[in-house]
Structures are given as C-alpha cells and as structure tokens.
Amino acid sequence: MLALDIEITPFSNPARRFKTKGIWDTGATGSVITQEVADVLGIKPIGKANVNTVGISDFTTDRYMVDIFLKADVRVQGAEVTVGKIASDMGFHCLIGMDIITLGDFSITNFEGNTCLSFRLPSRHQIDYVLQMNRELDIVKQHFNSGKNVNTPCSCGSGKKFKNCHGRDWETGGVPKIVLRNYRKLRCIEDFRGAQSRGN
Ligand SMILES: [Zn+2]
Predict the structure, then answer these.
(1) What whole-number distance in Å separates Cα of residue 171 and Cα of residue 18?
(2) What is the pLDDT of residues 75-120, one digit of tens each?
(3) What is the rounded radius of gyration, in angstroms, for the C-alpha atoms of the chain?
(4) 65 CA to centre of ligand 1 in angstroms
C-alpha cells in the first residue's frame, strides 16, 4: 500500500486541520474522505454524488470541498471529495484518487530494489519508458551502423566512449548483435496515453 502523511482542512480555511494518512489509489476516480474527517472539520456538504469505485457498486454519498496538503507547501486547493468507508481503524482517512493524481506527475520506480514514490505539481514533462527505450535503441543502432565500436565516442554526442555511455548497461562485447539482444530484455508497456479525463 502506498500512503503518505497528509493534512486535510476546510476549503481555504487552514485553521482547522485533520492529520491522517492518504492512500494513493489509481483505482479511484475521485478522492475520498471518511465521515470522521467531515465531522471533525465541521464542514457542510456541497451536494450529493454518485460514486463508482473499483469493487463497490454505485452508491450515493455527500460531496465536500476541502484543501489537501500533501506536504506543508504542496496544497491541492478546492478538492471535491466524497465520503466513503476507508480503513480508518488503521489510520487511513483519505483516498487520493485520479482527480488529484492527474494534476501532476506521479511515478513509482523500483531501481536497485528501492521503491520510490514520487509526485510533483504541476506536471513538468512526460515519462514514457517505451519512447525512452526506442530512442536509446536508435542511438545504439546508429552507432554500430556507422561502423563504430564500443571504444569510439558514443553516437549521442556526449563525448564519452560508447561503452561508458549508451553501451554502458549492456554486455556489449563489441558485438552489435549482443547489444541488441540485451536491449530486447528490457520490457515496457504504456498505458493512459493521451488526454486523461478528470472528475467524478
Ligand atoms: Zn550516449
């Protein structure tokens, strides 16, 4: 489970705060709080909403407007949330849904066995592993197709030897075929390309 310490306040009123853990939930279209959060903050519903969550059939619930502080200086202002059941006995009172996740860039990487969840607001650029792999592969192909070897400067123009640059992470052995075979071990998928629809 991916969770982080957050604070929820009434919309534009940081005087009252609810500290809890927010669960990043890509299966939730909209963000969710527990009734306890609304009660403690003393906020009034702004309307009703029909909610469709993965595994839970359609139900009607109250809608609230809150500010969510993902960190002290990272505020999602005026987030429209619905009320739902969360594992509050475990200290979780908020699901951070796709309405918030799609405001920025969100990644989970596991390099060298270390899981790193990272999020930034606003979005800065696209990370697309397929595109990245294909670009790297183009450089490797270009390098060998022009008759260079692992000790000549890399075709990306970095000035480094190929074996210390784009040939670095692969058992090149100076043989193009081996490089290409190793590249094929790298597998990528891509999803959610193009515009992401927002809202409940
Ligand atoms: Zn290079």
Answers:
(1) 53
(2) 999 999 999 989 888 999 999 999 999 999 999 988 888 889 999 9
(3) 23
(4) 49
Q: What is the pTM of this model?
A: 0.75
CA of 143 to the centre of ligand 1 (A): 9
Bridge-based pairing state of the strands 74-83 and 32-33 = parallel
Please give the distance, rounded to the nearest whole angstrom, from the Cα atom of residue 119 to the centre of ligand 1: 28
Asked if residue 42 has pLDDT above 90, the reply is yes
In whole angstroms, what is the distance from residue 133 CA to residue 129 CA?
6
21 Cα: distance to centroid of ligand 1 (angstroms): 42
Contact between residue 116 and residue 110 where contact means Cβ atoms under 8 Å apart: yes
Position 100 scores a pLDDT of: 95
Q: Name residues with Cβ closer than 5 Å to ligand 1, which is an ion.
A: 154, 156, 158, 165-166
Query: ∠ CA 184-185-186 to the nearest 5 degrees?
Result: 90
Which pairs count as long-range contacts for 3-6, CB under 8 Å and 24+ apart, including other chains? 3/92, 4/70, 4/117, 6/68, 6/69, 6/70, 6/94, 6/96
Q: Is 192 helix (H, G, I), strand (E, B) or coil?
A: coil
